[in-house]
Design brief:
The protein is mainly beta and 616 residues long. It contains 4 helices and 41 strands.
Length: 616
């Protein structure tokens, strides 16, 4: 479990039904939207006898300006929004767990309805709009709906399945549909009760309660529940992306009441805002009602030999029946082909640390691939963190950074990885850097340090092809209270971000909790130790505006690595070519600013590097 400080919104837009769709769905036989305060006959109590009660809030935007409301936690660290239920602006009920502070024992705060008549209802379903934030007590076990027919004996129903302190925040609003037929069907008296057991959590809001005599779920409602993100990292250098072969898999839900037939699912890769580069489809003959998280694999692989730029991986679905909630019929995630940086994310969003306390570390897994004849080195690490100022000031944090080589005998899924110690036999320690925060540093500002070879002390660490590396940062002593920066926009279904507390966990805080911990690489050398003949490569025109042409000349077919880099060796473009003889290769480089650059060709027999100038 990790402790968390949130930087920006944990928010998924609610799916609100249109008037046309509502006409197709059942009508509730009982409802409450709290327009006039706590309804007559309702009660709010605290089973712990500490007076921590549900209160009526007239409008979520009032926040702490109204004693009945809670703060919306829309600050920079937590990033929530005011309660977004349909009628929240005309009043709702809220339990503010944060307001009392730390309590001697957990509060057991209960909101109970007046009796509801469910006589003649063979089925009874409850739905409501809600939003919760937890800190120490998991919501799935401690924030529950209770149902009773006598006010004494209660049956518990979960509201927030899977919502733990690792996830912290629900959707805003989340709209559960709960079948309480086993308790309430045909009962003349039914009580509903929202019960929260916690201590110094955030808040729990409830509005727009509806009770139905039949399942109000749509008849036709397919959803893409999740999909396999095939890129090994959100950002990969152009020199490495072509070796990261993409496979595609999608998980589907049938949330509707009807079986769905002839489901066509399409996987695609496209330029962000541009052309589609790869597409393939599968057809699923039938998916039964109620099926959840069913996985389907696509047959073809895709090799992303792509230039520097932003791209999207996505999935769409259609079926014979018109989907009544089509908003979840498409999902996509971005990835980036960079000049020279590996990254698991596109910026800091949250801060996490292990709740157990003590010295700890986080690491990202990166893999070297292509560049058969040129050699690369790791030059810099980039990261971000924040703190709770009551623990330690941001400008007082110190950290150590490590670059480890993963042993070749460690399985791809790390099932045989020895994580028992920080300096485990499964890792070879290659590089190091020390970090001290500047006094003026603000939380979540990106920081960059130079990596040095552990054995030689020289700048940069030589990287081997077809090899995996862990880039790690360790927070110790007083700095162990720092929250490292993470991002949850991409879900990796394989080891990606690791966490060390007492041992290494290859799955970190979860597949969608990715550390802001980036690795920069460059060419080891921009000089030629063994030179190829001068006529092997010619650069023209020179100066260049947007397009450079390389004239290649070999006496016999030759395999080579071609690299475009800046004068310091930072890689801009790289590719492996097979069987080169006499040909001209053209590269469009509109992103380059004016300056001097390098065109380099490397073979098994040597290298040749030529300078060219870009003039804008």
């Amino acid at each position: 479990m990790q402790q968390s400080l949130l930087k920006k919104v944990f928010f998924l837009a609610a799916i609100l039904l249109s008037g046309a769709l509502q006409a197709q769905l059942p009508v509730p036989f009982w409802s409450e939207n709290f327009t006039n305060g706590l309804p007559s006959g309702w009660t709010t109590t605290d089973g712990s006898n500490q007076g921590v009660l549900w209160t009526w809030c007239a409008d979520p935007i009032l926040g702490d300006n109204d004693p009945g409301c809670s703060q919306p936690w829309d600050d920079a660290l937590n990033g929530q929004q005011p309660f977004n239920a349909t009628t929240a602006s005309t009043g709702f009920m809220v339990m503010d767990s944060d307001d009392p502070g730390g309590l001697p024992t957990e509060h057991i705060s209960r909101l109970t309805t007046a009796p509801i008549n469910c006589a003649g209802k063979n089925e009874v379903f409850v739905t409501f709009q809600t939003h919760i934030g937890v800190y120490e007590f998991d919501a799935d076990a401690n924030a529950i709906l209770r149902v009773s027919t006598n006010g004494t004996t209660w049956t518990d129903y979960p509201v927030f399945n899977g919502l733990t302190t690792t996830v912290r925040w629900s959707q805003n609003p989340e709209i559960p549909i709960i079948d309480i037929s086993a308790t309430a069907a045909n009962a003349g008296t039914v009580y509903l009760q929202w019960q929260w057991t916690g201590n110094w959590e955030y808040m729990w809001s409830v509005d727009d309660v509806e009770v139905y005599g039949e399942n109000p779920s749509p008849r036709n409602d397919l959803a893409i529940d999740a999909f396999f993100y095939p890129a090994s990292s959100f950002a990969q250098p152009e020199s490495q992306i072509a070796s990261d072969v993409f496979a595609f898999e999608v998980n589907l839900d049938n949330n509707g009441l009807n079986a769905q037939t002839n489901i066509v699912v399409t996987a695609y890769v496209k330029e962000d805002g541009g052309a589609t580069l790869h597409t393939q489809t599968i057809t699923i003959p039938e998916l039964a009602a109620g099926v959840q998280d069913s996985a389907f694999t696509f047959p073809d692989l895709y090799t992303p030999a792509l230039p520097n730029g932003a791209y999207l991986i996505g999935y769409t679905l259609t079926a014979d029946s018109l989907d009544q909630r089509p908003v979840d019929n498409q999902q996509e995630s971005p990835f980036v082909v960079s000049n020279n940086v590996f990254a698991k994310e596109d910026g800091p969003e949250q801060g996490y640390r292990p709740s157990a306390g003590g010295d700890w570390a986080v690491a990202n897994l990166y893999s070297m691939g292509a560049g058969e004849f040129d050699k690369y080195k790791a030059t810099q690490a980039e990261f971000a963190f924040t703190t709770n100022e009551d623990d330690i000031a941001v400008g007082e944090v110190e950290a150590a950074l490590y670059l480890f080589k993963v042993s070749s005998d460690v399985a791809p899924d790390f099932s045989n990885f020895d994580g028992s110690g920080f300096l485990t036999p499964s890792l070879e320690w290659l590089g190091v850097a020390n970090y001290e925060a500047p006094d003026t540093l603000q939380g979540y500002e990106l920081q960059r340090v130079d990596l040095s070879d552990l054995n030689t002390g020289l700048a940069g660490v030589v990287l081997e092809p077809e090899t995996r590396y862990l880039l790690a940062i360790e927070y110790a002593n007083a700095s162990a209270s720092a929250f490292h920066a993470f991002n949850d926009d991409v879900y990796y279904f394989f080891p990606s971000t690791f966490v060390f507390n007492t041992d290494w966990n290859p799955f970190g805080f979860g597949g969608d909790v990715n550390a802001v911990l980036r690795l920069y690489i460059s060419l080891i050398s921009t000089t030629d130790e063994t030179m190829l003949p001068e006529n092997t490569i010619n650069v023209f025109p020179n100066p260049v505006r947007e397009t450079v042409q390389l004239g290649i000349e070999f006496a016999e077919p030759t395999d080579a690595t071609i690299t475009i880099a800046d004068i310091s060796g930072r890689v801009i473009h790289v590719e492996d070519r097979k069987g080169l003889t006499m040909e001209t290769i053209q590269y469009r480089l509109p992103q380059l600013s004016s300056g001097t650059y390098l065109a380099r060709i490397a073979t098994a027999n040597g290298t040749l590097t030529k300078k060219f100038v870009v003039q804008k």
